[in-house]
Amino acid sequence: MIVERDRLPEELQSIPAEEFRRSERDWQTDERFTTEPIGFYKDALRRLFSNKVSVVSLAAIVIIIVLALIVPNVTGYGYTEQNVKQKNLPSKVPGLCRLGILDGTRVLTNIKKTSISDPKRYPEGCVLEVIREYKAGKQTVVDVKVDYYKYCGVPEGEYHWMGTDYLGRDILTRLFKGTRISLMIAFLSVVTNLIIGVVYGSVAGYYGGRVDLFLTHLAEVLDGLPYIVVTILFMLWLGSGMLSIVLALTVTGWIGTARLTRAQFYRYKGREYVLAARTLGVPDKKLIFRHILPNTVGPLITRAMIAVPGAIFSESFLAYIGLGIKPPEPSIGILLSEGQKVLLQYPNQTFFPAVLISVLMIAFNMLSNGLRDAMDPSRRGED
Amino acid sequence: MFKYVLGRLGAMLLTLFLVMTLSFWVIRLMPMTIFENPEVSPEVQRRLEDRMHLHEPMIVQYYYFIEGIVTRGDFGTSVKIRPGLAVFDIIRERIPPTMLLNFFSLFISIPLGIIAGTIAALRRNTWADNVISFLIVIFISVPSFVFASLLQYVFAFAVPLFPTLYNAQAPTVWAAFHSMVLPIVALSLNPIATIARYLRGELIETLSSEYMLLARTKGLTQKEATWRHAFRNSLVPIANTIIPLITGIMGGSLVIEKIFAVPGEGGLLVDSILGGDHFLTVALLIFYSFISLVTIFVVDVSYGIIDPRIRIGGGK
Questions:
Q1: What residues of chain A lie within 8 A of the CB of B149, using their CB?
Q2: Which residues of A touch B293 (CB under 8 A)?
Q3: Chain A contacts of B142, Cβ < 8 Å?
Q4: CA dihedral A137, A138, A139, A142 (to 10 degrees)
C-alpha cells in the first residue's frame, strides 16, 4: 500500500533517510526434498517385494519357467522318444539312489519262484531281495524287490528322474516340455483376453450411449452362456490343439476385462484433465490410450495375474475330458490324465505333474494376492 | 420387480435357444460320422439313418431337432453310448448319483465353510486365522482333480479305508455311503475354501464398520453385536457363492465323477464327447446350460429378496 507522504503524521514525515532500514523478512522456505520421489508403480513394486509370500511365489514361478526352458533340452531324451522295452519305469535319481530312495526299484508280486532264476526274464543281479514267499496251489510264489532298471535292460548310468510313461517316454522331459506348453497357453490366452477386453471395454466406456448399450448387451448374452458349454463347443468345433485351447479360453474370458475397463473409463472420462485435453483438440484415440487407459493398468495387471492360474487349470481340465492338445505333445493336464489311469500301479506318473501344477497354481494365486494388495491405492502408505 | 423377473426369464429362454442352435450346428457340422456300427448291415443302417432324418439337408434336420424338443421334449436318441435309448432318459437316469453326491457335499461344505470363515475373521491374525487362511489358499489353488487323485491313492490304496471307486450297486446303504466318502470330500474342499474366504473378507469388513460401533455403544456385548449385526450382514454376499452350489447339485463335476467312476452327469458328458455320441452331447450341453441359466436367474432375483437395499427396478 502506498501512502502519500504528506498525509502521514508530522513526526513521521521528518525521519531522516538514514534511519530507514530494509525490514528483514522472515523468509519461509520449503525444505528441499532430499529423498527420491516414489511414484505409484514404484511404491507398488516396493510393497510387493516387502511381502515375503509374494517374493517366494515369484521366485517359484521364475524357477519353474527357467526349468521349463532348460530341462527338456538337457535330459538327453526327446519328449516324444519312445522305448517300449523301458515303459513305466520308476524314478531313479543319481545320488539319491544310493540312499535307497528313488533308486529305481519296485516290488513285483505273485511271481513263480522258479522264474526268478531264469536269466532271460530276470537278468543277472536284478533281483535284490525276496520279500515274501508263499504257496499258491502247487506253485511257490514270491514277492520280490527288483532293480527295475536292470530288469528292463536299461544300460547302467541311464537315469529317468521321474520314471517313464506307458510308452517308455521320459516323464521329466515331458513334464517340463508340458509345463512350457501349459504356460504358453496360459500366457497367450491371458494376453488375448487383455487385448480384446481392453479395446472392447475402452470403446464401450469412452463412447457411452448407444454404442455402450449395444456392446454391453452383446457381452451379457455371451456371458450368459455357461463357461463349460462354450469351451467344449469351441474345442469340438476347432479340434484339439494349442491354438484352439487358447481361443476357447478367450471366448468368454475377455468379458471380465472389458467390464473392468469400461467401469474405469466411466470413472475417468468426466475428469477435468480429460476435458482439458479434449478442449485442446486431442483426438479420441489419443485420449483413450494416452490419457484414460493408463489409469486402468493397475487393476488390469492384477486381473491378468489372477487369470493365469485359471487358464492353467482350464487347460488341465480340458485334457482330462479328452479335449486337450494333440497327442504326442505333452501338457501338464495331459500328463495328469495319463497318470490318473495308472495311479494305483505307478503313482510316480501322477505325483510329479500333480506337485508341479499345485506349486504353480499356489504361487500364481499368492503372487496375484500380493499384487492386488500392493496395487490397492487405499492401502498406500500403510506400512 | 415382476417386470424385471419377466425380462430376465425372456432373456434366459433366448439364451437357451442360442445354446441349442449353437450346439446343434457346431456338433453336427463336425467332419465325423454320426452313426456307425459295424455289426449292423448297411440296409438297416440306412433305415436307421432315415429315421433320424440324417439324409435331409442340415436346415431340415435343425427344424426336426428344435421341433422335437419344443413339442415332445424329445432330445434325440443315443447312438453310441447306449444305442437306441432316448437321450432324455439316459440323462434322467444319471441324475440320482450326481445329486446324492452333491447334496452330501453341500451338506458338509456350507456349515464347514461358514464356521471356518467366521473363526478366521473373529480371530484375525492369530494362529487359527493363519492356519485357516493357508488351507483356504491350498484348497482354492490346487485343482480338485489333484486332490481326487491324492485321496484315491492315500485313502483307498495306501491305507485302504475306503473303496477306490464309487459303487452304485452296493448291497447295503452303508456300503454305498462308504464308497461315496472320497468323492464327497474331493467335491467339498473347493466350496469350503470359497465360502470361508468370502465370509472371512466380508466379516472383517463389517466388524470394523460404524454400525458395529453403534451396536456396541447402545449396550450390546461384542458377541451379541457380532451375531445380530455383523454375521447376518456378511451372509448376504455369501449367497452369491452358495446358490450356484445348490442349483449345481444336478450338474456334477466332470473330472471327479470320471476319476471315481461315478455314474453321473459329469462322467456322462465326458464319455459322450470321447465316444462321439453327438445327440447325447448336444442334449447334455443344453442340460448344463439350463442349470447355469437357472442359477444366474436365481442369484439375480434372490438379491432383491435377501438384501432389501438392492431392489432392482426402481424400488417398486
A1: 336, 339-340, 343, 350, 354
A2: 224, 226
A3: 357-358, 361-362
A4: 60
**Which residue type sits at A339?**
G
Among the partner-chain residues B27, B149, B288, the one whose CB lies closest to the CB of A350 is B149
Question: Which of B5-14, B166-175, B261-270 has the least mean pLDDT?
Answer: B166-175
Q: How far is B224 from chain A (nearest CA, A)?
A: 30
Sheet containing A127-136, strands listed edge to edge, beginning at the edge strand earlier in sequence: A105-112, A139-147, A127-136
Tell me how far CA of residue A154 lies from CA of A201, A248, A331, B177, in angstroms.
58, 42, 26, 46
CA–CA separation, A347 and B81 (whole Å): 30
Same domain, A239 and A361: yes
Number of domains in chain A: 2
Instruction: Give the CATH number, domain containing residue A205.
Output: 1.10.3720.10
**A223-258, pLDDT tens digit by residue?**
777 778 888 888 888 877 888 889 888 888 899 899
By residue range, what is the domain housing residue A97? 90-151
Q: Tell me, what's the ipTM?
A: 0.81
Interface residues of A toward B, Cβ cutoff 8 Å, are: 221, 224-226, 228-229, 232-234, 236-237, 309, 313, 316-317, 320-323, 336, 339-340, 343-344, 347, 350, 354, 357-358, 361-362, 364-366, 369
State the nearest Cα–Cα gap between B218 and chain A, in angstroms: 30
